[in-house]
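Lab meeting, item 3. Inverse folding demo.
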């Protein structure tokens, strides 16, 4: 069920992953998809802004949130005729809506996704796909029955030309034997949002509370966990974790300082280290993949390949990175993976969502890959909060 093809009609030129003319920067409109947004917090409003940039593909015709001030904020950035709802079931009764974006707290992903699929709509479901393993397995079962509907999960970075290129480099063995992965997503901030009244604390700052959230692992590190699962067609066999509320003693329940170590077996026997803190922003987003022939260092929209000395001697490995005879080196000895930074990954993701709706293709980030990552995240959180190793079970293997 997982589509393993790379972006078509693309080529490498002096290290650049060229975007086809019928991409997000061009027009291949067959029909406009009317979209309803359920959840108008920061992420939901960000998606509205993005869809407004794709008027030949999408039109936001309905928005829903049970907080009036958020609904008002969403209305301001939507077209005047956009309908507003405080009950998502009423949005699902709106016959003009073709597809739904769910950008709600994690504990609501599964029940609302079920209702969207049962309504017959296409679904873009924000990451992490589900709150727990049982929901992930159940959503896979349901989605398999909805053969004419697209379910895409919002792990948007894997849609970037940069990340496709890195996946391709791994497949072509340009990093050699890979043994270590280092990932961080750090900030120096309490991660809180202002609350107009105390009764809304848990509803607005839901990421702080275990009943609604998977914390830093689900909200941040899930992107990097997902990419490793996808790029290597793998999943962690065992997971160890530690952490705590070490910085902000403010009543939160989800940890503000976490470290997860995962063991992967397969073609590459790897150790993945995934960490996040709310107490230091020096590294910010850090993503390194280390092999015997070199290291890839990634940001969300840019990346550099650092060859090992023996890869420089074997010149064909280095040339293979850029696809050019003249190699462009950075000041610290790296080779840019692409000629220039990419756009916001969400833009590429929604371009793919449109294509999949039009052509009935399965998205790269689909219910199977989404479940694999959701299971990985839940095992990591179990290891983190229960303070014991967790292991992958055969019942989690999906196809």
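The presenter then showed the designed sequence:
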């Amino acid at each position: 069920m997982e589509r393993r093809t790379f972006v078509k009609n693309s080529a490498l030129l002096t290290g650049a992953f060229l975007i086809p003319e019928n991409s997000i920067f061009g027009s291949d409109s067959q029909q406009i998809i009317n979209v309803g947004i359920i959840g108008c917090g920061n992420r939901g409003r960000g998606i509205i802004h993005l869809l407004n940039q794709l008027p030949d593909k999408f039109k936001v015709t309905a928005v829903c949130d049970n907080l009036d001030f958020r609904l008002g904020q969403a209305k301001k950035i939507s077209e005047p005729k956009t309908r507003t709802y405080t009950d998502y079931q009423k949005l699902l009764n709106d016959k003009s809506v073709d597809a739904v974006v769910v950008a709600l707290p994690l504990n609501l992903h599964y029940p609302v996704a079920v209702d969207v699929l049962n309504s017959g709509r296409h679904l873009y479901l924000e990451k992490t796909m589900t709150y727990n393993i049982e929901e992930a397995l159940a959503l896979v079962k349901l989605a398999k029955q909805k053969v004419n509907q697209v379910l895409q999960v919002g792990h948007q970075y894997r849609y970037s030309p940069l990340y496709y290129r890195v996946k391709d480099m791994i497949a072509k063995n340009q990093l050699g034997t890979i043994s270590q992965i280092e990932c961080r997503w750090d900030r120096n901030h309490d991660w809180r949002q202002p609350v107009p009244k105390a009764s809304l604390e848990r509803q607005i700052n839901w990421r702080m509370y275990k009943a609604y959230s998977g914390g830093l692992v689900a909200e941040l590190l899930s992107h990097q966990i997902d990419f490793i699962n996808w790029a290597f067609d793998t999943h962690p066999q065992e997971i160890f974790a530690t952490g705590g509320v070490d910085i902000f003693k403010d009543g939160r329940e989800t940890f503000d300082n976490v470290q997860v170590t995962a063991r992967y077996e397969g073609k590459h026997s790897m150790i993945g280290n995934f960490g996040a803190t709310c107490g230091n922003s020096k590294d910010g987003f850090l993503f390194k993949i280390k092999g015997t022939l070199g290291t890839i260092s990634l940001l969300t929209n840019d990346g550099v390949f650092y060859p090992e000395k023996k890869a420089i001697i074997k010149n064909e490995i280095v040339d293979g990175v850029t696809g050019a005879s003249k190699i462009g080196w950075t000041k610290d000895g790296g080779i840019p993976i692409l000629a220039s930074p990419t756009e916001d990954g969400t833009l590429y993701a929604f371009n793919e969502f449109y294509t999949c709706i039009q052509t009935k293709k399965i998205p790269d980030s689909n219910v199977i890959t989404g479940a694999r990552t959701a299971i990985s995240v839940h095992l990591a959180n179990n290891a983190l909060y229960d303070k014991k190793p967790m292991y992958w079970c055969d019942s989690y293997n999906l196809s």
